[in-house]
Amino acid sequence: MVLLENDSFLTELTRLFQKCRNSGSVVITLKKYDGRTKPIPKKGQAVSFEPADNKCLIRASDGKKKISTVVNTKEVIKFQMAYSNLLRAHMDGLKKKDKKSKSKKTKATQ
After folding, report:
1. pTM metric for this prediction
2. How far apart, in whole angstroms, are the C-alpha atoms of residue 38 and residue 35?
3. Strand 27-33's sheet: what is its strand order?
4. Per-residue confidence (pLDDT) for residue 50, from 0 to 100
């Protein structure tokens, strides 16, 4: 997995969307990130770790290539605006629901 800066993550995410436009999918996950790189020990010494600020880890994968970035609290608004514009631009390949199946379900419940 490649940890990128926010701007380069968005450009790589654009490339992933373009690559998977006709076939395939892109999986995006968001997670709270506290800055740890090692797992928490199960037993023994309890290590208290308080992060200085909240961060968000964002990962994207197309099954072959994985990219990720960490967004700080100061950069959230800027990143969110760019990320939402990118999603709006590339969400046009979604399949529409079949209206016939919807009308059959409503008749069956009545």
Report:
1. 0.73
2. 9
3. 2-4, 66-72, 55-61, 27-33
4. 64
